[in-house]
Design brief:
Blueprint: H1 7-26, E1 34-35, E2 40-41, H2 44-62, H3 76-85, H4 93-100, H5 109-123, H6 126-134, H7 145-178, H8 186-214
Antiparallel strand pairs: 1-2
Helix pairs in contact: 1-2, 3-5, 6-7, 7-8
C-alpha cells in the first residue's frame, strides 16, 4: 500500500511538530524528567499539551491515504485486522469507499470496520504493552480511554524490567572480570561477594516485576 498525502495533510503534520518544538523551547513549565521515550512528563500540564500536539500531528500523517487499487479485492475483515493490529489511530473506511466502490461495488466496508476494531482492541492489550516495554520499543498508543491507563502502566513495568536486565548484564560482566583475582586479592573478593548479593536482589526484583506485568490482563471480547 502506498502513502498518498495531500499538501494540506503534510502542512498539518508539520504545524503540529512546529508547535510541539515551540512548546518545549518556551514553556514556563519545562519537563522535569522524560519517561517512556519522551512521551510522558511529571508535569501534567506539559504532558497534556504535548500529547495533544503529538496526536494532532500523527493523526494528520496517518490520515494520508494508504489504500491502493489492489486492496479493493482483499478480504476486508483481514485488511481491517491488519491495520488495527498495527495500532493505527484512524480507520480507512472513507478511503476504501472512494478508491474501491467503482472497481468493486460489492466491497464489504462493514466487515472492514469490524476487523479494524477487533485488531485495535488486540493491539491495546496490556500484555502487549508489557512486552513492548521489555523490548524497549518506542511508546505510541492511540488506545481507547478505558484501556490507555493500564496499557501505559504495563509498558512502564516492562520498560523497568528491560533496564534492570541491562543492569544485570553489567554486573555479570564485572563478576567475570573479578574472578581471576578473588583468591589473591581481598578487595576484589569483597567486591565479588557484594556484587553476588546485589545480583540476587536484582533478580528477585525482576521476577516480581515479571509477575506484576502479567497480572490484570484481559482478552478481547
Amino acid at each position: 500500500m502506498k502513502n498518498r498525502c495531500s499538501y494540506k495533510q503534510y502542512k498539518a503534520f508539520c504545524s503540529g511538530i512546529y508547535f510541539f518544538n515551540k512548546s518545549l523551547k518556551y514553556s514556563t513549565h519545562p519537563p522535569i524528567g522524560w519517561v517512556s521515550n519522551n512521551l510522558f512528563f511529571k508535569d501534567p500540564r506539559m504532558s497534556l499539551r504535548l500529547s495533544v500536539l503529538l496526536f494532532i500531528s500523527l493523526s494528520a500523517l496517518y490520515s494520508c491515504s494508504t489504500i491502493s487499487k489492489k486492496d479493493c479485492f482483499k478480504d476486508m475483515k483481514e485488511l481491517g485486522l491488519l491495520q488495527g493490529r498495527q495500532g493505527s489511530p484512524v480507520k480507512y473506511t472513507d478511503d476504501l469507499r472512494n478508491v474501491c466502490m467503482g472497481r468493486n461495488p460489492s466491497i464489504d466496508l462493514e466487515a472492514y470496520e469490524k476487523g479494524f476494531y477487533q485488531g485495535w482492541m488486540e493491539y491495546c492489550l496490556p500484555n502487549r504493552a508489557f512486552e513492548m516495554g521489555k523490548r524497549s520499543d518506542r511508546y505510541f498508543s492511540f488506545c481507547p480511554a478505558e484501556r490507555e491507563s493500564m496499557f501505559r502502566e504495563k509498558y512502564l513495568i516492562g520498560k523497568h524490567v528491560f533496564e534492570l536486565k541491562d543492569e544485570e548484564e553489567e554486573l555479570k560482566e564485572r563478576l567475570e572480570e573479578l574472578k581471576p583475582t578473588i583468591t589473591t586479592n581481598s578487595a576484589d573478593s569483597d567486591e565479588y561477594h557484594k556484587i553476588q548479593k546485589g545480583l540476587e536482589k536484582l533478580r528477585s526484583e525482576i521476577q516480581a516485576l515479571e509477575i506484576e506485568g502479567a497480572k490484570n490482563t484481559f482478552k478481547f471480547r
